[in-house]
C-alpha cells in the first residue's frame, strides 16, 4: 500500500483559498495543507483548523509572496516592504541568510503560537530546496525536527524527507492526472503530491496568474471517481501527522 499525501499549499492566502481547501477536505481527498503565516487569510485559516481537526497543517515557508512576518529586513524585501516575486539564483545570493533564518522561524513560530500543531514544512515556490539556502534549512530542521517536503537541489542528510511530485499543476491539471501517474506514485511508500485547490475571490485574482486553474483542481480533488480510483488501487490518503518517520524513502 502507498500512503498518498495530497497537500493543499497556500492555506491562509486569502478567504477564497481557505474555503476551497476546506471544501476539498470535507468533500474530497485533501487531508493535508500548509499555511502561509504572513498572508491576509492567516487568522481565518487558524479558526478553520479548529473546526476541522482531521486536516493536518504544516508551514508553507514564504519568501516570494506578499509581506514577511518580521518588519526588520534589509535584503529580503523591496522598497515597499514586499517580498520579491521571483527568486532567481542571483537574487538568492543577495539575501542575508540570518535574515532569512529569522523570517522562516518567525513564520513557523507564528503558526505554533496560534495553536497549530505543525505536521511538516514546505515552501512557496519551493525556495527551501535551493542550494543557496541550504545552511538556513539545515538550522531550521535542527531546531524544529519536523518532516519536510523533498525536491532538493542538494543532498540533505535528514531522515524525515518525504518525496514530492510537483506535476499536478497548470496544464497537467486534468481529471486523468492520477491515472496517468499511478505507476510513479506507487514507487513510493509515502509521497506528497502538491496541489492548490481554491475558490477565486478578488484578492486571489489580483495577486496571482494561477487562479482559475485552482477551481479546476478543486473539482478534480472532490470527485467521487477519484476517491474510488484510489480505493481500487490500494492508495491510502493521509497526512504528515499519520506517517512513520522513516517511510519517506523510495522502494
TrEMBL record:
Name of the molecule in the record: Chitin disaccharide deacetylase
One annotated GO molecular function is: chitin disaccharide deacetylase activity
Q: Which organism is it from?
A: Paeniclostridium hominis
Q: Which keywords does UniProt give here? A: Carbohydrate metabolism, Hydrolase, Magnesium, Metal-binding
**Which E.C. number(s) belong to this protein?**
3.5.1.105
Output the InterPro entries linked to this UniProt entry. COD_ChbG_bac, Glyco_hydro/deAcase_b/a-brl, YdjC-like
Q: Which cofactor does it need?
A: Mg(2+)
Which superkingdom? Bacteria
